[in-house]
Amino acid sequence: MNILRGTFFCAAILAGLSGGAAADLPTAKPPAAAPLGPTSCTDPIQFVTTDCALSWYGVTLYGTVDMGVGWESHGVPLNRHIISGVEELVQKNSNHAQWLLTPGGLSQSFIGVKGKEEFAPGWAFVFDLSMGFDPYTLSVANGPRSYLDNNGVPLALQSANADSSRAGQFYNGVGYAGISSPYGTLTAGRVNTLTLDGVVAYDPMGASYAFSVIGWSGLTAGVGDTEDARATTAIKYRVDLGQFRASALYQFGGYDLNNGSQGAYQFGFGGDFGGGAYGKLSLDAIYANEQGAVSSSLLTAAQNLKYPGTLAATISDDSGVMLLAKYAYRQVRVYSGFEYIKFQNPSRPQLASFTDIAGIPVVAADINNNAYANHRIQDVMWIGARYAFTDAFDVGVAYYHYIQHNYALKYCDNASSATCAGSLDAVSFNADWQFAKKFDAYAGVMFSEAHNGLASGYLHTSNLAPTAGVRFRF
């Protein structure tokens, strides 16, 4: 009922704003006619061998299936609920060398339906609904559930686990409706945040799980907490103004409406600057603020004896600034980004038990509202490039770096506590070959290593993870 109530509330607000927002915006030229897209498929063979779409009357069924294998120098067994299946990025429970089935190495497997129906010249109704899943087990992607699977389990015996905004919902990707017009696009419902859009657009590895730190970990996209990479009851607006663009997001409602925070807002501004024969430079800046953000965690053995079937949570108010740049010149694309994230104790502590975005109870006794007596500051930065040898084959390389500033009451820069200053470094390489209209094959490797405070309590502090796979997109 809470989800339905949030959906109807979104629709009501959208109906009101779509009639009034355009009047306050600068006049823009109607968009040019879109080029003809792929034709609709007429038989199964055409569906597999051509770029035809499963479209009827403006509605398209689409999706991705990504299946691979990999080896990890310090890995843990596959978990069918964690969105990436395995832990290519070094984690606290990273354990011993092993071969693994690796779902979603290059992108999340998902199924979705989307549509665009024009109702006036330049004006159209749009919608999108998608759900991510594990192609090996067909389980719905559910990060918090991977914690529940490992409650009370010693580090050395755990399977893969990590938090996520994909939490078992049938709309765990997106689920929105809206209006597209010459004055921009306004959508309401479950949407990707501006910071997640920024990561996807400016990561040289395309936010992949197997080759990208900021793809595998939602810390960057979620402004500190991965559950906030998507908002379920939100309004999102984007507009192009010549070579410039602006965007905004506002989340209303909190945990009871399937959000990972009690409220959020984000603003973005950017542009594309053509240099003719010298290529094109793209720049974007995003500010984000999250109130009462939830970082879920699994229970210790003692906690699990008291409250089985629940999770623990740390609550914080988070804010961040993301700066992004991309340069394209002939076959070369260079990407870079920086994000400053500040965590602080919540202005409105969560004192009562609540239900998280996966529908899992969080009891008051296991809620931490005081994790940041000193503000925690974390810097995230990355740089990388891709080179296209042909239209069907390209390679990429990337470097990622975290800096955690000390937030212990007494300064430390060792692994004695997770509050000490620390860092994480990762380098990756991959190659991608589109050998058919809807198929591509890929292979690559990521090496990651944690240091000092960011390595506190780790079984092993590094992981080497080569991965190869095949992806089908329709």
Keywords for this entry:
474 residues; mainly beta; Porin; 6 helices; 20 strands; globular; disordered N terminus
Describe the structure.
This protein is mostly beta strands and 474 residues long. It has a single domain, classed as Porin, CATH 2.40.160. It contains 6 helices and 20 strands. It has helices spanning 2-20, 44-49, 143-149, 194-202, 213-216, 301-306; strands at residues 54-56, 59-75, 96-103, 110-120, 123-132, 175-181, 184-192, 230-241, 244-251, 263-274, 280-297, 311-329, 332-344, 354-355, 361-368, 376-388, 393-404, 422-433, 439-452, 462-473. The chain has a 16-stranded antiparallel barrel. Strand 6 (175-181) and strand 7 form a beta hairpin. The longest helix is centred in the N-terminal third of the chain and has 19 residues, at 2-20. It is globular, with a radius of gyration of 22 Å. The two termini are 33 Å apart. Mean pLDDT is 93; it is low at 1-35.
Describe the structure in brief.
With 474 residues, the protein is mainly β. It is 11% helix and 46% strand.
Helix-strand blueprint:
Layout: H1 2-20, H2 44-49, E1 54-56, E2 59-75, E3 96-103, E4 110-120, E5 123-132, H3 143-149, E6 175-181, E7 184-192, H4 194-202, H5 213-216, E8 230-241, E9 244-251, E10 263-274, E11 280-297, H6 301-306, E12 311-329, E13 332-344, E14 354-355, E15 361-368, E16 376-388, E17 393-404, E18 422-433, E19 439-452, E20 462-473
Parallel strand pairs: 12-15
Antiparallel strand pairs: 1-2, 2-3, 2-4, 2-20, 4-5, 5-6, 6-7, 7-8, 8-9, 9-10, 10-11, 11-12, 12-13, 13-16, 14-15, 16-17, 17-18, 18-19, 19-20
